[in-house]
Amino acid sequence: MQREAGALRLAPADALAFLESHARLDPTFPSFVRAARAHGASVCVVSAGIRQAIEPALARAGVDVPVYANDVDFDPTGWRLRFIDDSVQGHDKAARVRAVRAAGEYTIYVGDGISDFEGALAADEVFAKKNRALERFARGRGLRVRSFATFDEIERALFPATGSSGSPPGRATAGPAGR
Q1: Would residue 7 count as lying in a domain?
Q2: What pTM was computed for the model?
Q3: What one-character-per-residue DSSP string does 101-150 give?
Q4: Domain that holds residue 139
Q5: What domain count does the chain have?
Q6: H/E/C letters for each residue in 10-36?
């Protein structure tokens, strides 16, 4: 990944515009965050992506949640990624999930890709984007996983109109908000 980033040679303003134009956020994510908070859950974004693309996308959608993601230095001779840690994906998502669980919280992991495999294994409950790598990985290992296309499906599953969910109260969620 570092090699690919090093090949990009854009000025910071152009780089940010490029990242912003490629950042995708599920339009139902803001409602999901509001529902989670209304039920006492915390939400954060745990991503192997680039923080400088994720935070503006969230801000445009009016979502204020903690973001744990990699950074990039926009050097005109080539971008340099600054990874959170030395793990294979540059961000050990499972470590973040384990820390939340160690604090006594119930964890719900929402993901879609290869970088989500270990985080999903560490979580109490998993939602995997339909027909993506995480869903195939989880099902291939016999993990209990719920598939979703958009965050409104997760919202309905966790916070049905009756007010009861299948998960303990005070749960914490972790995972990417979408790409």
Answers
A1: no
A2: 0.82
A3: HHTT--EEEEE-SGGGHHHHHHSSEEEEETTSHHHHHHHHTT---EEESS
A4: 26-71+85-174
A5: 1
A6: CCHHHHHHHHHHHCCCCCCHHHHHHHH
Residue 18 lies in a domain: no
Q: Spell out the per-residue pLDDT of the chain, length 179, in tens.
A: 555 554 455 677 777 787 777 778 999 999 999 999 999 999 999 999 889 889 989 999 999 999 999 998 877 777 788 888 888 877 899 999 999 999 999 999 999 999 999 999 999 999 999 999 999 999 999 999 999 999 999 999 999 874 444 444 444 555 554 43
Q: How far apart are CA 175 and CA 128, in angstroms?
A: 10
Structure tokens at 27: 């339009």
CATH code, domain with 41: 3.40.50.1000
